[in-house]
Write a structure and sequence with these properties.
The chain is mainly β. The chain has one domain: Neuraminidase (6 Propeller). The radius of gyration is 19 Å and the shape is globular. The strands form 4 sheets. A 5-stranded antiparallel sheet has the order 13-14-15-16-17, with no helix packed on it. Helices cover about 0% and strands about 40% of the residues. It is built from no helices and 17 strands.
Length: about 250
């Protein structure tokens, strides 16, 4: 479609789902628009919408049955963050909405949303803001139904650029309301971003991310946190043996 897409996928049992956007013409590759959803239960031999309608591939027209949010109708850009499933196996999309693709305060704060399939329609809910389109985080769904997000939603030492300070958020009502649990980083010298969900990992290796200075060449370290956010660790930059212990950081 137009100038291509970015895509996020996730699996639940034998079902593989994907959510993707498109690069809208004539703006180009820095912009993202619209949200599309597709799923398969037969290893990609056929793809369906959330309602079960089979999609005719390839999807080349932006107005197609996979479209679940038409951001161009709202004159907004969207930046996908994550895809997960709720306790009933229904997809949840985590994304950010922006007024433009340029960095800086000119387009204002960016707004984070969840978009959940209820079985009848897509339920869109807002929950926080941050200051850059590439503030990336992950959505976790716990066995008891609690949702958690780890994302750089606080400004970092390089404000209005990629990343910031990492924060743990929780919702117990499917994203209707959120509470800030704790800051995972603060007083950093470099921005943190791209928190990712390790697959089938131990609860003490819950989210993995990196830091860096978006404005100049810099060092970059890897970090991870526990499920409750009570401990954050930094991996060693150099190793002299086959293994090494991570450094536990003092909490904010």
């Amino acid at each position: 479609m137009e100038q291509g897409s970015y895509q996020v996928t996730w699996r639940r049992g034998t079902r593989l789902a994907t959510v993707f956007d498109m690069h809208p013409e004539p703006i180009g590759l820095n912009a993202r628009a619209n949200i599309y959803f597709a799923q398969t239960d037969d290893f990609g031999q056929s793809w369906q919408t959330s309602t079960g309608e089979t999609l005719a591939l390839p999807l080349t027209n932006p107005q197609n049955p996979a479209l679940v949010y038409d951001s161009r109708a709202d004159q907004k850009l969207v930046y996908l963050k994550d895809l997960n499933f709720d306790a009933k196996g229904r997809p949840i999309i985590l994304y950010l909405v922006s007024n433009g693709y340029h960095s800086g305060p000119g387009h204002g704060l960016r707004t984070w949303y969840t978009l959940r399939w209820t079985g009848r329609d897509w339920d869109r809910r807002e929950f926080t803001t941050s200051d850059h389109n590439y503030d990336h985080g992950s959505l976790f769904v716990e066995e008891q139904g609690r949702w958690q997000v780890v994302a750089p939603t606080d400004p970092g030492p390089q404000p209005w650029t990629t990343g910031g300070e990492m924060v743990l958020w929780q919702s117990d009502n499917q994203g209707a309301t959120w509470r800030r649990v704790r800051s995972l980083t603060s007083g950093s010298s470099r921005n943190h971003t791209y928190a990712r969900r390790p697959v089938d990992a131990h609860p003490r290796f819950y989210a993995l991310w990196a830091d860096g200075n978006p404005l100049e060449p810099s060092q970059s370290s890897l970090y991870f946190t526990t499920r409750d956010g009570a401990a954050v660790y930094r991996l060693p930059r150099e190793m002299t043996g086959d293994s090494a212990l991570p450094e536990r950081l003092s909490m904010p």
